[in-house]
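Write out a sequence, fold above all:
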Amino acid sequence: MCIRKSWAWPAPGPAGRAAIPLGNSGLIISHKSFRTKQKLAKAKKQNRPIPQWIRLRTDNTIRYNAKRRHWRKTRLGI
């Protein structure tokens, strides 16, 4: 029988604090360049359902936003 180890906080670093979460590029996640922030803002604006008036105008041929993105399933690649 295998005993599963429960989840625990990361071990403290040399200064006694937990490790700082890092992004893919090795930088602290909260520190963003202006270009990165602009790209994130544009992606946030694009990620919404289509307006109802477009469904009426196109006679329901466009029913949903095909490029809709879930924040956890699909990454932006920034």
In short: The two ends are 43 Å apart (CA to CA).
